[in-house]
Structures are given as structure tokens and as C-alpha cells.
Amino acid sequence: MASPTDNTHITHEFRFFQVHKDGQIVLRRPPVEKIPPSDDPITGVRSKDVVISENPPVSARIFLPKSTETDRKLPLLFYIHGGGFCMQSAFSPTFHNLVGSVAAKSNAIAVSVEYGLFPGRPIPACYEDSWAALQWVATHKNGNGPDPWLNDHADLDRVFIGGDSAGGNITHTLLSRVGSIGLAGVKVLGAVLVHPYFGGTEDDHMWMYMCPENTGLEDPRMKPATEDLARIGCGKVLVFVAEKDELKEPGKRYVEELKKSGWGGTVEIVENIGEGHCFHILKPKTDKAEELLNEFVSFIKH
């Protein structure tokens, strides 16, 4: 077997992985650490993991904020982590802390989905798993779903969908499905796309390699079609782009095309000046990261 550094045996070089002649795929970064759910002693947010499907394997981490009132249900954030469709986890310290923080600050229940990643499960597993998890959330509408936290505390007439990078991309596809075929028992009020990974950069071919069933550079999952934009199933959208991110232009184009599509909602774009892709995840303690998080939270609360 070729070693990861033996360039004579490499057939494809992408940002996140190499492909070798023998079919071996070598990710450029090691697998992320995964941590168990826990009760946060500072914020009071509790968390637990649930299995949504055994085959295919889909699970999620649920976050319940401290200030739960028995007579008033809370909005629900359905979160989809980033990682280029081939990395990261809802159970990593990065996304455990991020989603837990949003839940605490927005006083919302959060469901962070653990979806299939390339190469073990090529695209479209990420879309199908996320859709399955959102449908699972919907089974709690009448208070008789499989999870008591959602039954007792989630207001499914106030659902938000959000994600960063690849998760922002997946968010759009879910919104399109909600608008096209519906999601019984759920009202999606809004969506947040943070530095979404859409087409129009040198990484398009990486996505196409990860998705063997792709339809080319104009695949609507990477370059959203007008008809899909026109029917996205929520009333408001917030999109973040970063000044130094090569995905800035695809993100801005998404907003422009959404405005022209005939969709009846409102869309806002926020540019993070002087920052790169997903800086709030790489540098979560900075003032600008805190500012992004606060804008995310404000979108849910208002």
C-alpha cells in the first residue's frame, strides 16, 4: 500500500484528502476527538445523545437550556456541523461547545445531527441523514415522540435550521425539501448559513468526487437552482460571509439569487470583515467570534 507521502501513487489532490492509485483515500487531518454529553456547570445546559437510525447510522446530541419553564415551550435549533463533508462531528469539543453556547444564549433546545461523512459514506449521505434527523424531530409535534425533552419542551412551531460551511450547504437543501414536500407538524421560522460551502471555487471538483452521483458543476446542491430558492420553507434567512474566505463570493451570490428567485421571505447578509473561513470556530474566544454568535442568537430570539 502506498504511503500518504508517496506522491507517485497519488491520482487526485484535494484540499481535504488525497486519492491513491489503489483507491485508498487519505484525509489530511486526523479524526477529531469525540466527547460524551454532559451538564455544563457554568451555563446549566444539559446534553444527551440519541440514536435516530441504526441503519444507516444517524444520531444527534440534544442540548436543553437551564431556564426551562414547564408552562412555556422553547424554540428549537436544528444544527448541522461543518467539516467539508468529510470531517468533524456533532460530538467534537468544537461543536459541543458551539451548539451548547447557542442553546444557552438563545434559550432554545438544540438538536445537533451526527451525519455520515465521506469516504465511509459518500454524499448524498449527509443530506439524507440530516433530513432523516429533521423528520425525527417532527415526530414530537403532538408530545408523543421518542424523546421526552422534545416532547416536554420543544415548540415545533418555532424551529430554526442552521449550520456552518458544509452544514450551511446542507441547510439549504433541507429548506428546499421543507418548502417542496413539507414537514408535517413543524414550522420552520428561519435559517442561518454561516460561511456556506456552495459552488464556484476550486473545491467544486472535491465535492463532485465525494458525490459520485453528481450532475456536474451546476448540480443544484452546490449551485442552488432558482426553483429551489423560490420555495425554501422558511420566512427569514441570515447568511454570514467572511472577507478573507474564498467562499465569500458563492455566499453573496446565494443571497443575490435568493432575492431574485421570487421567494417571499427576508434575507440578511453579514460580512465578517478581516476574517477567514469559520474563524469563530477556530478562534472562539475573540471579540468578533462573540459578535457572530450574538447575531446568530439574536436571529433566533427575535
Structural description of this entry:
- This protein has helices at residues 93-106, 125-138, 148-153, 166-181, 204-210, 226-230, 248-260, 279-282, 287-301; strands spanning 10-13, 17-20, 25-27, 46-53, 58-64, 74-80, 109-114, 154-164, 188-194, 236-242, 266-272.
- The protein is an alpha/beta fold and 302 residues long.
- Helix 1 (93-106) packs across helix 9.
- It starts with 9 loop residues before the first strand and ends with a helix.
- The model has no long low-confidence stretch (mean pLDDT 95).
Structure annotation, total helices: 9
Please trace the helix and strand order, writing H or E for each element.
Answer: EEEEEEHEHHEHEHHEHEHH
Sheet having the most strands: 8 strands, mixed
**Uncertain ranges:** none
Distance between the termini: 55 Å
Q: For the CA atoms, what is the radius of gyration?
A: 19 Å
The residue fraction in helices comes out at 25-40%
Could you say which overall geometry the principal axes of the C-alpha atoms support? globular
- Give average pLDDT, whole number: 95
**Secondary structure tally: strands:** 11
Placed side by side, the strands forming the largest sheet appear as: 4-5-7-6-8-9-10-11
Strand content: 15-25%
The helix-and-strand class reads alpha/beta
